[in-house]
Amino acid sequence: MMSGRSGLGTIALAISFWSLGVSAPRADMIDRSGMEPWEVCGLCHGFDGLSAVAKFPKLAGQRATYIEKQFRDFRAGRRRNDGGQMEAISTELEPHLVQKVAAYFSTLAAPRPGEEKGAGFNLGRELFGRGREGLPACAGCHDPAGAQSSGTLAPWLEAQHRDYLVKQLADFASGARDNDPAGAMNEIAAALQPGEREALADFLAASERPQREP
Q: What Å distances lie between residue 192 and 72, 154, 197, 204, 214, CA to CA?
């Protein structure tokens, strides 16, 4: 039997095997006594919410309401990820603990930009802040003023992994991701012209994220 950090090591090993297609982790593999509920999430997303791998988004300083919604969507099958890890892990965490996990990550220090300004930085800044004909400004939902006026649960995007942002925009455009209740992100992502997806990611990944209220 294992507990605490020993249990974390077992979970990490199980997830590693799973990612290689060996087997899927099950709740009965691990004795999680003494573990905080966010520690399982921290194995991929970082205990400080600053994941080292672009496949896993940084959660530090993210809106708690957004984290809660994504977790519920994975649990209900409204959102999927390529390896299936989140669908399975979301069923292992009791629903009443989801709010606690979201609160933990939302109160961590916001991430710093981890990438240099890419070639599309200036175009991305223009698209994010002002949009263009036929494309609304991303800031209309993804900055605090826009989120308040629009009433959306849109996430903060600055200092996120560039490749993660590109992948999510591609998935919204193709319909592989469709858990935006109004479908706005699917329409917007599909309207992006060649190079604009990467430009937005260049801008956001290299932009400072202010510390915001969780």
A: 28, 18, 6, 16, 30
pLDDT tens-digit readout, 147-171: 776 667 899 999 999 999 999 999 9
Region of poorest pLDDT, from 39-43, 58-62, 65-69, 208-212: 208-212
Burial letters for 179-211: b for 16+ Cβ neighbours within 10 Å, e otherwise?
Answer: bbeeebbbebbeebeeebbbbbbbbbbbbebee
Q: Is the pLDDT of residue 184 over 60?
A: yes
Tell me the C-alpha to C-alpha distance, in Å, between residue 53 and each of 12, 39, 105, 147, 164. Answer: 14, 17, 17, 28, 9
Q: Is 193:169 a contact under the CB 8 Å cutoff?
A: no
- What domains sit in the chain, N to C, each tagged with a CATH number? 38-107 (1.10.760.10), 118-206 (1.10.760.10)
Residues belonging to the binding site for heme c are 41, 44-45, 86, 138, 141-142, 185
| HSE value, Cβ hemisphere, 13 Å, CA-based, for 73 | 15
For the annotated binding site, the residues are 41, 44-45, 86, 138, 141-142, 185
Mean predicted lDDT score pLDDT of the chain? 85
Paired residues of 155 in beta bridges: none
